[in-house]
Amino acid sequence: MTERALRLGTRRSKLAMAQSGQVAEKVRQLTGRPVELVEITTYGDTSREHLAQIGGTGVFVAALREALVKGEVDLAVHSLKDLPTAQPAELVLAAVPEREDPRDVLIARDGLTFAELPDGARVGTGSPRRMAQLNAYARSHGMTIETVPIRGNIDTRVGYVHNGELDAVVLAAAGLSRIGRTDEVTDFLSVDTVLPAPGQGALAIECAAHNASLAAALAELDDPYTRAAVTAERSLLAALEAGCSAPVGALADLLADGQIVKEMRLRGVVGTTDGSTLVQLSTTGPVPETETQAMALGRELAVEMLAKGAAGLMGERAL
Ligand SMILES: NCc1[nH]cc(CCC(=O)O)c1CC(=O)O
Protein backbone atom coordinates (compact mmCIF):
# COMPACT_ATOMS: atom_id res chain seq x y z
CA MET A 1 0.00 0.00 0.00
CA THR A 2 1.31 3.47 -0.85
CA GLU A 3 0.51 6.37 1.45
CA ARG A 4 -0.66 9.66 0.02
CA ALA A 5 1.98 12.21 -0.89
CA LEU A 6 3.21 14.63 1.73
CA ARG A 7 2.49 18.23 0.68
CA LEU A 8 5.43 20.56 1.28
CA GLY A 9 4.50 24.26 1.24
CA THR A 10 7.07 26.55 -0.33
CA ARG A 11 7.52 30.08 -1.59
CA ARG A 12 8.07 30.34 -5.32
CA SER A 13 11.41 32.14 -5.44
CA LYS A 14 14.33 30.27 -6.96
CA LEU A 15 15.96 30.10 -3.52
CA ALA A 16 12.82 28.80 -1.80
CA MET A 17 12.25 26.20 -4.52
CA ALA A 18 15.87 25.07 -4.30
CA GLN A 19 15.86 24.63 -0.54
CA SER A 20 12.40 23.06 -0.50
CA GLY A 21 13.44 20.64 -3.22
CA GLN A 22 16.49 19.61 -1.23
CA VAL A 23 14.41 19.04 1.92
CA ALA A 24 11.70 17.21 -0.09
CA GLU A 25 14.30 14.72 -1.31
CA LYS A 26 15.49 14.04 2.27
CA VAL A 27 11.90 13.65 3.51
CA ARG A 28 11.20 11.20 0.68
CA GLN A 29 14.18 9.07 1.67
CA LEU A 30 13.23 9.28 5.34
CA THR A 31 9.55 8.44 5.09
CA GLY A 32 9.42 6.43 1.88
CA ARG A 33 6.48 8.65 0.88
CA PRO A 34 6.20 10.83 -2.21
CA VAL A 35 6.57 14.55 -1.46
CA GLU A 36 4.91 17.18 -3.64
CA LEU A 37 5.75 20.89 -3.58
CA VAL A 38 2.81 23.26 -3.08
CA GLU A 39 3.62 26.85 -4.11
CA ILE A 40 2.36 29.62 -1.85
CA THR A 41 2.70 33.36 -2.39
CA THR A 42 3.56 35.41 0.69
CA TYR A 43 3.15 39.11 1.36
CA GLY A 44 6.92 39.51 1.28
CA ASP A 45 6.92 38.19 -2.30
CA THR A 46 4.31 40.59 -3.67
CA SER A 47 4.91 43.79 -1.67
CA ARG A 48 7.31 46.22 -3.30
CA GLU A 49 7.86 48.18 -0.10
CA HIS A 50 11.18 48.14 1.67
CA LEU A 51 11.35 45.34 4.20
CA ALA A 52 12.34 47.70 7.00
CA GLN A 53 9.10 49.60 6.33
CA ILE A 54 6.70 46.66 6.24
CA GLY A 55 8.26 45.59 9.53
CA GLY A 56 10.00 42.54 8.14
CA THR A 57 8.74 40.21 10.83
CA GLY A 58 7.15 37.21 9.26
CA VAL A 59 6.27 38.67 5.87
CA PHE A 60 7.76 35.65 4.08
CA VAL A 61 6.35 33.18 6.56
CA ALA A 62 2.76 34.07 7.51
CA ALA A 63 1.04 32.60 4.45
CA LEU A 64 3.00 29.34 4.73
CA ARG A 65 2.09 29.04 8.39
CA GLU A 66 -1.54 29.72 7.60
CA ALA A 67 -1.53 26.89 5.06
CA LEU A 68 -0.06 24.56 7.70
CA VAL A 69 -2.64 25.54 10.30
CA LYS A 70 -5.48 25.01 7.79
CA GLY A 71 -4.07 21.61 6.84
CA GLU A 72 -3.53 22.64 3.21
CA VAL A 73 0.07 21.48 3.46
CA ASP A 74 1.77 18.98 5.77
CA LEU A 75 5.13 20.65 6.20
CA ALA A 76 6.84 23.89 5.28
CA VAL A 77 10.45 24.92 4.81
CA HIS A 78 11.57 28.41 5.80
CA SER A 79 14.87 30.25 5.89
CA LEU A 80 15.27 30.29 9.63
CA LYS A 81 16.34 33.92 9.69
CA ASP A 82 12.94 34.91 8.25
CA LEU A 83 11.05 33.11 11.03
CA PRO A 84 9.55 35.32 13.78
CA THR A 85 10.85 34.41 17.22
CA ALA A 86 7.35 33.69 18.57
CA GLN A 87 6.34 30.07 17.93
CA PRO A 88 2.58 29.60 17.25
CA ALA A 89 1.11 26.90 19.52
CA GLU A 90 -0.46 25.06 16.54
CA LEU A 91 2.94 24.50 14.89
CA VAL A 92 6.21 22.83 15.82
CA LEU A 93 9.71 23.50 14.61
CA ALA A 94 10.18 19.82 13.78
CA ALA A 95 13.75 20.10 12.49
CA VAL A 96 16.61 22.52 12.12
CA PRO A 97 19.06 20.77 9.77
CA GLU A 98 22.81 21.39 9.92
CA ARG A 99 23.59 25.01 9.10
CA GLU A 100 25.43 26.08 5.98
CA ASP A 101 27.98 28.88 5.82
CA PRO A 102 26.39 31.66 7.93
CA ARG A 103 28.49 34.48 6.45
CA ASP A 104 27.45 37.42 4.35
CA VAL A 105 29.27 37.84 1.07
CA LEU A 106 30.04 40.63 -1.37
CA ILE A 107 29.44 40.44 -5.09
CA ALA A 108 31.34 43.39 -6.53
CA ARG A 109 32.28 44.58 -9.99
CA ASP A 110 35.71 43.61 -11.30
CA GLY A 111 36.25 41.00 -8.60
CA LEU A 112 36.75 43.62 -5.88
CA THR A 113 36.86 42.71 -2.20
CA PHE A 114 35.20 44.99 0.36
CA ALA A 115 38.54 46.52 1.40
CA GLU A 116 39.38 47.24 -2.25
CA LEU A 117 36.22 49.28 -2.94
CA PRO A 118 37.04 52.81 -4.07
CA ASP A 119 35.93 55.84 -2.08
CA GLY A 120 32.28 56.63 -2.66
CA ALA A 121 31.48 53.07 -3.76
CA ARG A 122 27.76 52.33 -3.88
CA VAL A 123 27.00 49.16 -1.93
CA GLY A 124 23.49 47.73 -2.17
CA THR A 125 21.75 46.26 0.86
CA GLY A 126 18.33 46.80 2.37
CA SER A 127 19.40 45.33 5.68
CA PRO A 128 19.96 47.78 8.57
CA ARG A 129 22.21 45.13 10.17
CA ARG A 130 24.49 44.99 7.14
CA MET A 131 24.47 48.77 6.73
CA ALA A 132 25.46 49.33 10.37
CA GLN A 133 28.37 46.92 10.28
CA LEU A 134 29.66 47.81 6.80
CA ASN A 135 29.55 51.52 7.61
CA ALA A 136 31.31 50.90 10.93
CA TYR A 137 34.06 48.96 9.16
CA ALA A 138 34.41 51.67 6.52
CA ARG A 139 34.66 54.41 9.15
CA SER A 140 37.33 52.60 11.12
CA HIS A 141 39.37 51.92 7.96
CA GLY A 142 39.21 55.43 6.53
CA MET A 143 36.94 54.37 3.67
CA THR A 144 33.80 56.14 2.53
CA ILE A 145 31.03 54.03 1.09
CA GLU A 146 27.41 54.75 0.32
CA THR A 147 24.97 52.04 1.34
CA VAL A 148 21.99 51.96 -1.01
CA PRO A 149 18.75 50.30 0.14
CA ILE A 150 17.69 47.59 -2.31
CA ARG A 151 15.55 44.50 -2.14
CA GLY A 152 14.31 41.77 -4.40
CA ASN A 153 15.35 38.23 -5.16
CA ILE A 154 18.94 37.18 -5.72
CA ASP A 155 18.83 37.74 -9.51
CA THR A 156 17.48 41.27 -9.06
CA ARG A 157 20.07 42.19 -6.46
CA VAL A 158 23.06 40.79 -8.33
CA GLY A 159 21.66 42.46 -11.47
CA TYR A 160 22.39 45.91 -10.01
CA VAL A 161 26.11 45.10 -10.16
CA HIS A 162 25.98 43.68 -13.68
CA ASN A 163 24.07 46.69 -15.03
CA GLY A 164 26.48 49.12 -13.38
CA GLU A 165 23.98 50.77 -11.02
CA LEU A 166 25.92 49.64 -7.99
CA ASP A 167 29.55 48.75 -7.32
CA ALA A 168 28.61 45.86 -5.05
CA VAL A 169 25.78 44.07 -3.29
CA VAL A 170 25.79 42.09 -0.05
CA LEU A 171 23.95 38.77 0.24
CA ALA A 172 23.92 35.65 2.40
CA ALA A 173 26.41 32.95 1.34
CA ALA A 174 23.88 30.22 2.10
CA GLY A 175 21.30 31.55 -0.35
CA LEU A 176 23.84 31.68 -3.17
CA SER A 177 25.15 28.25 -2.29
CA ARG A 178 21.66 26.70 -2.38
CA ILE A 179 21.10 27.98 -5.92
CA GLY A 180 24.66 27.08 -7.01
CA ARG A 181 25.99 30.62 -7.50
CA THR A 182 28.85 30.95 -4.99
CA ASP A 183 31.28 31.30 -7.91
CA GLU A 184 30.09 34.91 -8.32
CA VAL A 185 31.19 35.88 -4.79
CA THR A 186 34.11 38.33 -4.78
CA ASP A 187 34.56 38.48 -0.96
CA PHE A 188 33.39 36.28 1.91
CA LEU A 189 32.94 38.76 4.76
CA SER A 190 34.51 37.59 8.00
CA VAL A 191 32.04 37.28 10.87
CA ASP A 192 34.50 39.44 12.82
CA THR A 193 33.51 42.25 10.42
CA VAL A 194 29.85 41.46 9.76
CA LEU A 195 27.93 39.23 12.16
CA PRO A 196 25.14 37.47 10.26
CA ALA A 197 21.43 37.69 11.05
CA PRO A 198 20.26 35.38 13.84
CA GLY A 199 19.62 31.99 12.21
CA GLN A 200 21.24 32.92 8.90
CA GLY A 201 22.31 29.91 6.87
CA ALA A 202 19.92 27.55 8.67
CA LEU A 203 16.59 26.13 7.53
CA ALA A 204 13.48 25.54 9.62
CA ILE A 205 11.11 22.66 8.90
CA GLU A 206 7.69 23.18 10.46
CA CYS A 207 4.60 21.01 10.70
CA ALA A 208 1.33 21.01 12.62
CA ALA A 209 1.77 20.29 16.33
CA HIS A 210 -0.98 17.62 16.23
CA ASN A 211 0.85 15.68 13.50
CA ALA A 212 3.08 13.90 16.01
CA SER A 213 4.11 11.05 13.71
CA LEU A 214 5.30 13.43 10.99
CA ALA A 215 7.07 15.62 13.57
CA ALA A 216 8.85 12.55 14.91
CA ALA A 217 9.95 11.50 11.41
CA LEU A 218 11.19 15.01 10.56
CA ALA A 219 13.15 15.16 13.82
CA GLU A 220 15.66 12.84 12.12
CA LEU A 221 16.74 15.85 10.04
CA ASP A 222 17.50 17.93 13.13
CA ASP A 223 21.06 18.91 13.98
CA PRO A 224 21.22 19.50 17.75
CA TYR A 225 24.21 21.91 17.60
CA THR A 226 22.61 24.05 14.92
CA ARG A 227 19.37 24.05 16.85
CA ALA A 228 21.13 25.11 20.07
CA ALA A 229 23.03 27.84 18.23
CA VAL A 230 20.04 29.33 16.44
CA THR A 231 17.92 29.07 19.59
CA ALA A 232 20.51 31.15 21.48
CA GLU A 233 20.73 33.67 18.60
CA ARG A 234 16.96 34.03 18.36
CA SER A 235 16.60 34.30 22.11
CA LEU A 236 19.06 37.22 22.01
CA LEU A 237 16.97 38.86 19.28
CA ALA A 238 13.74 38.32 21.23
CA ALA A 239 15.23 39.61 24.48
CA LEU A 240 16.38 42.75 22.68
CA GLU A 241 12.74 43.04 21.55
CA ALA A 242 13.96 43.33 18.00
CA GLY A 243 12.57 41.83 14.80
CA CYS A 244 14.36 40.34 11.80
CA SER A 245 14.64 43.79 10.17
CA ALA A 246 16.39 45.34 13.19
CA PRO A 247 20.10 46.17 13.01
CA VAL A 248 20.96 43.07 15.07
CA GLY A 249 23.59 40.46 14.21
CA ALA A 250 24.21 37.28 16.20
CA LEU A 251 26.20 34.10 15.80
CA ALA A 252 26.67 31.18 18.16
CA ASP A 253 29.44 28.69 17.54
CA LEU A 254 31.23 25.92 19.36
CA LEU A 255 34.62 26.41 20.94
CA ALA A 256 36.65 23.22 20.76
CA ASP A 257 39.93 22.08 22.22
CA GLY A 258 41.19 19.71 19.54
CA GLN A 259 38.31 17.28 18.94
CA ILE A 260 36.63 18.03 22.23
CA VAL A 261 33.82 20.56 22.17
CA LYS A 262 34.20 22.78 25.21
CA GLU A 263 31.73 25.62 25.14
CA MET A 264 29.29 27.57 23.07
CA ARG A 265 30.15 31.16 22.28
CA LEU A 266 27.47 33.68 21.38
CA ARG A 267 28.41 36.96 19.72
CA GLY A 268 25.96 39.80 19.21
CA VAL A 269 25.96 43.27 17.67
CA VAL A 270 23.54 46.17 17.50
CA GLY A 271 24.32 49.43 15.76
CA THR A 272 23.08 52.56 14.10
CA THR A 273 22.80 52.15 10.34
CA ASP A 274 25.41 54.89 9.74
CA GLY A 275 27.91 52.76 11.65
CA SER A 276 28.81 55.55 14.08
CA THR A 277 27.93 53.43 17.11
CA LEU A 278 28.08 49.65 17.56
CA VAL A 279 27.49 47.63 20.70
CA GLN A 280 29.28 44.33 20.12
CA LEU A 281 29.62 41.74 22.87
CA SER A 282 30.28 38.06 23.31
CA THR A 283 29.58 35.49 25.99
CA THR A 284 30.42 31.83 26.43
CA GLY A 285 28.80 29.04 28.40
CA PRO A 286 28.48 25.27 28.55
CA VAL A 287 27.10 23.78 25.32
CA PRO A 288 23.31 23.99 25.86
CA GLU A 289 21.62 20.61 26.19
CA THR A 290 18.08 21.92 26.37
CA GLU A 291 16.09 24.67 24.71
CA THR A 292 15.86 26.41 28.09
CA GLN A 293 19.65 26.51 28.42
CA ALA A 294 20.11 27.82 24.87
CA MET A 295 17.55 30.54 25.49
CA ALA A 296 19.30 31.51 28.72
CA LEU A 297 22.57 32.08 26.84
CA GLY A 298 20.82 34.49 24.48
CA ARG A 299 19.03 36.34 27.28
CA GLU A 300 22.26 36.67 29.25
CA LEU A 301 23.99 38.41 26.33
CA ALA A 302 20.93 40.60 25.70
CA VAL A 303 21.03 41.86 29.29
CA GLU A 304 24.69 42.83 28.86
CA MET A 305 24.02 44.51 25.52
CA LEU A 306 21.06 46.44 26.91
CA ALA A 307 23.25 47.62 29.80
CA LYS A 308 25.59 49.06 27.17
CA GLY A 309 22.79 51.04 25.52
CA ALA A 310 21.63 48.59 22.82
CA ALA A 311 17.97 49.64 23.10
CA GLY A 312 18.75 53.25 22.18
CA LEU A 313 20.43 52.12 18.95
CA MET A 314 17.51 49.99 17.82
CA GLY A 315 14.95 52.71 18.36
CA GLU A 316 16.11 54.12 15.08
CA ARG A 317 13.75 53.03 12.32
CA ALA A 318 15.91 54.32 9.54
CA LEU A 319 16.86 52.61 6.31
N1 LIG B 1 16.05 38.07 3.81
C1 LIG B 1 15.86 37.16 2.71
C2 LIG B 1 16.67 35.92 2.87
N2 LIG B 1 16.27 34.96 3.73
C3 LIG B 1 17.22 33.98 3.71
C4 LIG B 1 18.22 34.34 2.83
C5 LIG B 1 19.43 33.57 2.51
C6 LIG B 1 19.56 32.20 3.05
C7 LIG B 1 19.77 32.09 4.53
O1 LIG B 1 20.30 32.99 5.19
O2 LIG B 1 19.44 31.03 5.05
C8 LIG B 1 17.87 35.55 2.26
C9 LIG B 1 18.61 36.29 1.23
C10 LIG B 1 19.79 37.11 1.70
O3 LIG B 1 19.83 37.60 2.83
O4 LIG B 1 20.72 37.29 0.89
TrEMBL record:
Domain Porphobilinogen deaminase N-terminal: 6-214
Keyword line: Porphyrin biosynthesis, Transferase
Note: The porphobilinogen subunits are added to the dipyrromethane group.
Stated name of the protein: Porphobilinogen deaminase
Assembly with partners or alone: Monomer.
Modified residues (S-(dipyrrolylmethanemethyl)cysteine): C244
Entry EC no(s): 2.5.1.61
Cofactor info, note text: Binds 1 dipyrromethane group covalently.
Gene Ontology molecular function, alphabetical: hydroxymethylbilane synthase activity
UniProt domain Porphobilinogen deaminase C-terminal: residue ranges: 229-306
UniProt function note: Tetrapolymerization of the monopyrrole PBG into the hydroxymethylbilane pre-uroporphyrinogen in several discrete steps.
Statement: the UniProt record of this protein carries the keyword Nucleus: no
The organism's taxonomic lineage, starting at the top: Bacteria, Bacillati, Actinomycetota, Actinomycetes, Kitasatosporales
Originating species: Streptomyces anatolicus
Listed cofactors: dipyrromethane
Family label: Belongs to the HMBS family.
Catalytic activity: 4 porphobilinogen + H2O = hydroxymethylbilane + 4 NH4(+)
UniProt keyword Transferase, yes or no: yes
Cross-referenced InterPro entries: HemC (IPR000860), Porphobilin_deaminase_cofac_BS (IPR022419), Porphobilin_deaminase_N (IPR022417), Porphobilinogen_deaminase_C (IPR022418), Porphobilinogen_deaminase_C_sf (IPR036803)
